[in-house]
Amino acid sequence: SVFIGSSIGSLTEIYASLQKSIGATENLFAILDEPAEPLSPVTAIAPEDALHGNIRFSNVSFSYPGRESLPVLRKISFQVRANQTIALVGPSGAGKSTIVSLLLRLYDTTGGHISFDNKDIHQFPLSALRSQMATVPQDVFLFGGTILENIAYGREDATEEEIIEAAQKANAWEFIERLPLGLNTIVGERGMQLSGGQRQRIAIARAVLKQPRILILDEATSALDAESEKLVQDALNKLMEGRTSIVIAHRLATIRQADKIIVIDKGSIVEEGTHHELVNIDEGLYRNLCEMQFTQ
Ligand code: ATP
Known about the structure:
single chain; 6-stranded mixed β-sheet; 4-stranded antiparallel β-sheet; 12 helices; 35% helix
């Protein structure tokens, strides 16, 4: 966001078009490292590139460019079936965000393979892949522009009716409607400052409009105010229905609902199962995290 407010127009544009293709993300530098590939506006997906939502990591290893001596993921294997919800949990620095970055192909694996519906990740055009995924990050960045533009990001063809409907489903409409300029309110650095929960609901509205096959959710670690919290949670629960969801989870409620929990420590999967299975592992990392870390 440091760059966005500056007058370097071209960088702002590059950033805007990148964000458009992958949805909001905090990881600006990861994206700017991405080898240049034309990012076409969202167009119809070729039938062979349409995702069902099955994901498989097979022996995936990874180290960040220039840090080859520091493996961040070590032979990670897991499978997600279409429409399942998977929670990634583990201590800070374990590698959860890195798994998400690989899924979005912000980086390529240094070992092993990622596939969607049994097809290698490299067989999909990057734009097709990313236009079928949406991310709702912990700390949502809104670019300088109207609320309408922020919601329609990546779906410029959306009508105002569709945008309002998306805002309603995201539980964002009630606060937007109360603003004097409504959808035309300018937000971002030079505009109206929205609360964390409000910004998150804008990101959810953006995702609702995008109707992704795969939803990536980075749960907030810090609690939002109670009302916002519930509105965000309800909107997310609706959004997750009928699509594959990968959640970097910090809330016990989310984790309990997940079809599968993958516990990561120092770049390896150390436990995998449902909440019920994992809390019963004596001295288990998950059980430990439950006692120490997760928000009730
Ligand atoms: P947290 O819960 O704190 O977000 P995490 O489990 O998501 O942690 P990652 O962000 O994936 O962990 O980080 C895994 C490791 O990779 C850490 O040691 C981190 O320092 C390193 N790392 C993350 N991003 C980069 C990057 N862009 N360049 C180099 N190293 C990185």
